[in-house]
Amino acid sequence: MAEEVVVVSKTSPVRRRAVEGAVGMLAGLVLACLSGPAFVSFWYKPPSGDAFSCAGTVTEALSYFVKLELFAGLAGGGFILLMSFLLRRMLRKRREARTAPT
Fold this sequence. Notes:
The chain is an all-alpha fold. The protein has a domain at 75-102. It is built from two helices and no strands. It has helices at 13-42, 55-99. Helix 1 (13-42) runs antiparallel to helix 2 (55-99). The chain is elongated and about 85 Å long.
């Protein structure tokens, strides 16, 4: 009778922590993009309505900054995914070439 061997490989704790950290950073970036402009522009609005206010300019600048943050986050995430894919592919080919019979 043939004996069946089951190999269970655990994920690396370092990899798990890196993924958790990346997800946390992404969530923080999204949260900062969504609530950051309102929070920062709050400090530029005067308490009385008749005082000089630069709140409109600050709010507009923050909206452009948020768009830049989101674009940079998406571009960075896409770049990391692409590099991860290419690196794993290269390592898999190298491992296969090393174990291939000659």
